[in-house]
Amino acid sequence: MRGLIVDYVGVLDGTEEDRQGWRELLGAIRDSDVKLAVLSNEPEGPGAERVKADAAWYGVENVFLSGETGVEKPDPQAFEGAADQLGLSPKECVLVDDAIENVHGAVQIGMIGVFYQALERQAVELRSLFGLNR
Question: Which GO terms describe its molecular function (predicted)?
Answer without folding.
Answer: hydrolase activity
